[in-house]
Amino acid sequence: MSEKLLERVRELARLWGPSGREQRVHDALKAQIAPFVDEVRTDGFGNLLAVRKGREGGRRVLLSAHMDTPGAIALNVTDKGLIYLAPVGGLKVHHAVGQRVVWGSGALGVLQYEHVEEPKDLSFRKLFCDIGAATKEEALERVSLGDMCTLAGTVEAWGDLVVGPGLDNRLGCAVLLEVAERLGSGPHTVIFAFTAQGEVAPRGAAVAAFGAEPDVAVLVDSAVSGDQPGVRQVATRLGGGPALRLKDSGFMAHHGLAAQIAAAAEAGGIPLQRCVSPTGSEGWTVTPVGPGVPTAVIDIPVRYPGTGGEMADLRDARAAAELLLHFLGLPLNLA
């Protein structure tokens, strides 16, 4: 196990950074990647862009990972100090009940719900956060309306497995840091993009691609693993290596780029899974940017995504970094 990779995942996953409020994650990533690149900047959307210049005649390659996590926003506070919420991103109500959360203000709370007769009647309208306040005034001293909360907790290592909240997609961010540190000189100019608001719409990757004007783009994300009980449409597993996403609800991988990634995996002896995902990705937002961008998505399989107990295998993340390094050393012919 790469201890540095583990520490990067742990450090990034503990940072508060829901969609639209990614500044703390942005600042941490900026400090970590700056020594490995030639230029670091932030665009008007809040994406962090770090550029490693290549040789003349090389391609412009965008490597992207969204840095936000799902959460909830404070809508109203009752006279008894209970905070009612609306979801921000992919937080599901059945995943949220009983979970501890942390607010942007630093306040801690627990998510609970009003009495319902049947589980099917549970909705976000009945979900609230209890921060231990006795009155509305006391609650508002610690949490303002419009403040956001995310699931709280630390990432634990169980051998090669990591378990905790925030792995989607801080794992992808950690992989990009590994690539940046180990890249060295290469033929291509690489633009590392840590994007905002990947959990809502998503939007950040499209803005990053517009500004970067890449010849190709590879997005690194986390996706539900096929070995999670009840997931029958996905043929991936933890420990089987990163997965090349061939298709999802709005995206088709570029055939030439997918073939080059598969060739890089074979040449490097890197296990590569293939998947067709029932859910979406940021791939569909990048592909049509400008004159069109050949795009691929590399998934790191995760069990129980969106919960406080996400589970992934660090070997898959490490193999994803190895795959990208091999890919970046190749001449890119997308015919």
Walk me through the structure.
This protein is an alpha+beta fold and about 325 residues long. It folds into two domains: about 5-70 and about 165-330, Zn peptidases (Aminopeptidase), CATH 3.40.630; about 70-150, Peptidase M42, domain 2 (Elongation Factor Tu (Ef-tu), domain 3, Beta Barrel), CATH 2.40.30.40. The chain contains nine helices and 17 strands. Strands 1, 2, 3, 10, 11, 12, 13, 14, 15, 16 and 17 form an eleven-stranded mixed beta sheet that branches. Strands 4-5-8-7-6-9 form a six-stranded antiparallel beta barrel. Strand 4 and strand 5 (about 80-90) form a beta hairpin. Helix 1 packs across helix 5, helix 5 (about 165-180) crosses helix 9 and helix 7 crosses helix 9.
Radius of gyration: 20 Å
Q: Architecture of the largest domain, CATH level 2?
A: 3-Layer(aba) Sandwich
Give the name of the CATH superfamily of the largest domain: Zn peptidases
Number of strands: 17
Q: Classify the helix fraction into a percent range.
A: 25-40%
Terminal CA distance: 37 Å
Strand and helix layout:
Elements: H1 3-13, H2 23-33, E1 39-42, E2 48-52, E3 60-66, E4 71-77, E5 82-88, H3 93-96, E6 100-103, E7 108-113, E8 127-130, H4 136-142, E9 148-151, E10 156-158, E11 161-164, H5 167-182, E12 189-195, H6 204-212, E13 216-224, E14 243-247, H7 255-268, E15 273-276, H8 283-286, E16 295-303, E17 310-313, H9 314-328
Parallel strand pairs: 3-12, 3-13, 13-16, 14-15
Antiparallel strand pairs: 1-2, 2-12, 4-5, 4-9, 5-8, 6-7, 6-9, 7-8, 10-11, 11-17, 14-16, 16-17
Helix pairs in contact: 1-5, 5-9, 7-9
